[in-house]
């Protein structure tokens, strides 16, 4: 039997093949949870799970923008550790930056489908499973972004979805409280992951200059807050939007 504050819990983490999702899998496993590393990129999810070991982690292919894919992921996830996950982390996300006047409809739709609709689908399907299995405590953690409040030019699609995630989180927290399921979101600043690797160096330098801590964040620094929200240490935190930005506004 694993020890740690999350012993006996199963976590389902999307976007687990990279960046914040991968770091989250590591820290939830460190705290004793069994982890399902889910990603559209199965190979990347397998790398995450293999690092943690077969007894503590399993990989799953999922496309969060597809209801069918998410629905079958619920059954597959329960089968992995014979238990519905009571921790769900919606970390899958994409950017398709571009100025509004030139933004192809496709880039708007793709970002919406993964970031906002994907969060909806995973939350809805996995919350149903938690409620059916009468999990005594559930925790759903969504990844918004400080961009929801900074509203950078060139990110109309991304900013709108991440602002949507905050409202979605609040509504879900109000609807699920009676089932013992808490729903919170995190607004990371600029975190050193493949998503930010494509941001031009000039922009990254400006961000670092504006950040009171004078540096980018590390994925583990977001994952630590996710691990806190997953655990009963945060038992009375519900419907919150927590900025983890090094002070960047
Ligand atoms: P990343 O690009 O390193 O990883 C994202 C992962 O999501 C990838 O493994 C990708 O394969 C997966 N993914 C993409 N579309 C998917 C789909 N349809 N179904 C399943 N998986 C899919 O990104 P990072 O940096 O780890 O970001 C994680 C979350 O945190 C995202 O929601 C992002 O918007 C958010 N965030 C990230 C920030 C940063 O500075 N890195 C800042 C604020 C928010």
From TrEMBL:
Gene3D superfamilies: NAD(P)-binding Rossmann-like Domain. It is found in: Mitochondrion matrix. Keywords: Fatty acid biosynthesis, Fatty acid metabolism, Lipid biosynthesis, Lipid metabolism, Mitochondrion, NAD, Oxidoreductase, Phosphoprotein. PROSITE patterns: ADH_SHORT. Pathway: Steroid biosynthesis; estrogen biosynthesis; Lipid metabolism; fatty acid biosynthesis. Its main location: mitochondrion. It comes from the Eukaryota. GO terms for molecular function: estradiol 17-beta-dehydrogenase [NAD(P)+] activity; quinone binding; testosterone dehydrogenase (NAD+) activity. It catalyses: testosterone + NAD(+) = androst-4-ene-3,17-dione + NADH + H(+); 17beta-estradiol + NAD(+) = estrone + NADH + H(+); a (3R)-3-hydroxyacyl-CoA + NAD(+) = a 3-oxoacyl-CoA + NADH + H(+); 17beta-hydroxy-5alpha-androstan-3-one + NAD(+) = 5alpha-androstan-3,17-dione + NADH + H(+). Pfam families: adh_short_C2 (PF13561). GO terms for biological process: estrogen metabolic process; fatty acid biosynthetic process. InterPro entries: KR_dom (IPR057326), NAD(P)-bd_dom_sf (IPR036291), Sc_DH/Rdtase_CS (IPR020904), SDR_fam (IPR002347). The keyword Phosphoprotein applies. Its EC number is 1.1.1.239, 1.1.1.n12. It is an enzyme of class 1 (oxidoreductase). Belongs to the short-chain dehydrogenases/reductases (SDR) family. Heterotetramer with CBR4; contains two molecules of HSD17B8 and CBR4. This is (3R)-3-hydroxyacyl-CoA dehydrogenase. It comes from Drosophila lebanonensis (Fruit fly). The lineage of its organism: Eukaryota, Metazoa, Ecdysozoa, Arthropoda, Hexapoda. The gene is LOC115633291.
